[in-house]
Specification:
Number of helices: 5
Shape: rod-shaped
Radius of gyration: 50 Å
Helix content: 55-70%
Strand content: 5-15%
Oligomer: single chain
CATH topology of the domain at 85-190: 60s Ribosomal Protein L30, Chain: A
Structural class: alpha+beta
CATH class of the domain at 85-190: Alpha Beta
Strand order of the largest sheet: 1-4-2-3
Length: 191
């Protein structure tokens, strides 16, 4: 091989090597895909607003339930107050005392404001006297209260009377204090 051929071969080898190195080490442009980032994982404004509205509705329902329960408790207390106050009579009498009339005025006011209720007036006596006499006296006492309530504007259709005579004493002792308690009219509300 001659010197000229050798030189050409060397030159070709250098050029090929250079080209090889250039193509293999060439900087390639990275292909990037455009990636969209998902929205933050928290709730949207619409979802937050819906949650606030649901919370407000729940709070309103809780307040309404509390108010309903308060009203029911008040109604129960008023009914208990109405029923717990009796009127009392003197021995062997069915005429209303001044204290009894004052109590009945309050009962009439309650009944007029609460027309959904009727009332049963239960006449009672102390143990003295016969059963028949005490039943008749208890009846007169209950009717005295009924008539007075009617005179105050309570419809007689909303009132019934019943006499228990001496059968249901509030105080079972046999003395004047017990007898005074047992001469009464009791009032029971009826729906």
């Amino acid at each position: 091989m001659n010197k000229k051929t050798m030189t050409v071969l060397i030159a070709l080898t250098v050029v090929c090597s250079a080209l090889f190195l250039m193509t293999s080490c060439a900087h390639k442009e990275a292909v990037t895909e455009e990636v969209t980032t998902p929205p933050p994982s928290g709730p949207t404004e619409a979802e937050l607003q819906a949650a606030r509205e649901a919370e407000e509705r729940a709070e309103q329902a809780r307040r309404e339930e509390e108010e309903r329960m308060r009203q029911e408790a008040m109604v129960r207390q008023e009914m208990e107050d109405f029923e717990s106050v009796n009127i009392y009579f003197d021995f062997d009498k069915s005429e209303l005392t001044a204290e009894a009339r004052a109590v009945l005025v309050k009962k009439a006011d309650y009944l007029k404001k609460n027309s959904r209720y009727a009332v049963r007036i239960e006449g009672n006596c102390d143990e003295r006297g016969t059963n028949e006499y005490n039943l008749a006296l208890g009846d007169r006492r209950a009717n005295a209260a009924k008539d007075f309530l009617a005179s105050l504007g309570v419809s007689k259709d909303r009132m019934t009377t019943m006499s228990y005579g001496e059968e249901r004493p509030l105080d079972s002792r046999s003395n004047e204090e017990a007898w005074a308690k047992n001469r009464n009219d009791q009032f029971v509300l009826v729906k």
